[in-house]
Amino acid sequence: MKKTTVLLLAGGLTAVSACKSSQTETTSVNTETTTEATATAETTLDYPDTKKTDHVDTYHGKQVADPYRWLETHTDEVDQWIKAQNEVTQEYLGDIDFRDNIKARLTEIWNYPKYGAPFKEGGKYYFYKNDGLQNQSVLYVQETLESEPKVFFDPNKLSSDGTVALSAFAFSKDGKHVAVGTSSGGSDWNTYQVMDVATGKMLNDKLEWVKFSGPSWYKDGFFYSRYDAPTEGNKLANKNEFHKVYYHKIGTPQSQDKLVYEDKAHALRNFYGQTTDDERFLILNASEGASGANALYYKDLTDPKSTIKPIVDNFESEYNVVDNFGDKLLVMTNKNAPRYRLVMIDSKKPQEANWKTIVPESANVMQSVSTVGGRIIASYMKDATSQVVVYDQNGKQLNTVELPTLGTVSGFGGDQKDKETFFTFTSFTYPPTIYRYDVPNNKVTQFRKTEVNVDTDAFETKQVFYTSKDGTKVPMFIVHKKGLKLDGTNPTYLYAYGGFNISMTPSFSIANMLWLENGGVYAMPNLRGGGEYGEDWHKAGMTPNKQNVFDDFIGAAEYLINQKYTSSERLAVAGGSNGGLLVGAFMTQRPELAKVALPAVGVMDMLRFHKFTIGWAWVPEYGSSDDAAQFENLYKFSPLHNIKEGVKYPATLVKTADHDDRVVPAHSFKFISELQAKGAPGNPYLIRVDVRAGHGAGKPTSLVIQEYADTYAFIYKNMGVNPYEGEAQNK
């Protein structure tokens, strides 16, 4: 398949799904009242007055109050509320005397060159590089691997504050043009333009309202997916419906783009079109939700009379077309194989009975597959760490690719004719290192090593398996300084995700280095709901089984405390997006178990998440309040609806952004309002709202550093730790 498309969307809640018609009934929305809550950390905090209404919804006969419904809309009143909340938060953070020390150290260690693996287009090599503190990485080009690199495209020039980011970058087959996708302020909405490679100039082509797409070239144009333009005034919250596939021809206005595919009968389906490398086929993936299952269609582009035909016309399993060999499609699927297998499908006889297994399911989870140099290169997961196996085109195993240690690989892109490919290896204490792989000779050589201003050899990583509530064994990585004393006093940062078949594997974070060098412990469990052990592991943490995920996270915290890595007074729990829901459920179910809670861009209102933007896509993962049984399950763990009056919750810093149109910020706004109103005094309950930022993708380096500085300062203050006193610094 086309390997030049670069999608820089944040992982997680991105795909699509269907939900049933709403049975929610609004019974009243009248009298306005106000409430003021205060909580005490070291000093009493005066939170902004947050208006309450008597709005009540009825779900299957049960009345549920929603006093902060007004925070779901984008109005001047909401903007003033955001401003007031940010002022309280920034005053609190500004009074932490070591916050500037943290930011200075983060800035110091962040300032190192960061490279992406090279890839070839039009006979030239391209790679991304960030000099250190640039807000966005720059794309470079070089004639050979030895020649002097030149700047090809610099997204830092697109905005003065670095908030316009590349979201897609795809070269045409002849290498003469490139489709450039950009997003502004972290929004999922994309704008596509076309660039002339030889001159570096943008053509007049401009495509708007692109979302959940990638440009896929065919002849003198490309396929892409978009929605109709949203209604004005609430484009960051409007529900996304009726995704369509278009073909754009270079040099023509968007109004003349050809509609290739739409489904008027199913508003809540998304469609993603890709062309094979030889431009023989258009492959159409259709999805009904973020659970991963998809239908698969194709069109023979060499036949003018060809129509779009189904290969699989249901949403029971996953299908990903890797490549084609003439009429035949190489497809990675979990159909009858929860840990995935590789099959060959004849486009002229696509019925399942005719499928040929090329690489069968194994004990390990197949993560990705590419075809380079006449080989099939498959990356696997074993206990959340990478292994790479090379096969011939008939599925015969030839060899494995040698990796430096336990960690995570990515890359191996290229074409069937290429003799070389590149991959990146990383782990918790192993900065991303790029390797060149000589395909015919199965030879790995280091291509580019990352140098950081931290002694990574001072830390160690171990993997443990702890027992969750129902007896399930759950793996967890634990990283800390060598020689750490297990005396229950170590500040510990527990981070997880647990959903959407997304696997949490070892990776390097320069921000984590600050935590580790100051004696902190970093722990990352592989909760059910993820993809670490295939689809069975995923299903064990979705819809009616979602509580398993929260129990796994609670079990991780209990293990760290029982094994004396830390104590409840020195434990911070964190997660973003679906992980924000995880933290919200953790802190409302076991508020005494952690000192600090950090829910970021979280799904906190489980009764209304499907009402906004792409939220309907998460119904297969969570369930829907429109269904009576699923409503009861959601209501039990919905963070917003489980905050109780007078309970002392962990010191909480909710993080969100005003341009988040993935998980709209209203989730966080309503959650913190309820927490400030009901939470018992003793800990601060604050919200930090980034302006001109979104769900996480494309966030400028400067904003990322500031966010980490604020977060660490908040954690340390509430744990009673000053990382810059005495021997704790140890840099």
UniProtKB/TrEMBL annotation:
GO terms for molecular function: oligopeptidase activity; serine-type endopeptidase activity. One of its GO terms (cellular component) is cytosol. Residues 1-18 form the signal peptide. Residues 22-43 are annotated as: Disordered. It catalyses: Hydrolysis of Pro-|-Xaa >> Ala-|-Xaa in oligopeptides. PROSITE patterns: PRO_ENDOPEP_SER, PROKAR_LIPOPROTEIN. Its EC number is 3.4.21.26. The keyword Protease applies. Residues 48-449 form the Peptidase S9A N-terminal domain. Residues 506-720 form the Peptidase S9 prolyl oligopeptidase catalytic domain. Cleaves peptide bonds on the C-terminal side of prolyl residues within peptides that are up to approximately 30 amino acids long. Has an absolute requirement for an X-Pro bond in the trans configuration immediately preceding the Pro-Y scissible bond. This is prolyl oligopeptidase. It comes from Pontibacter fetidus.
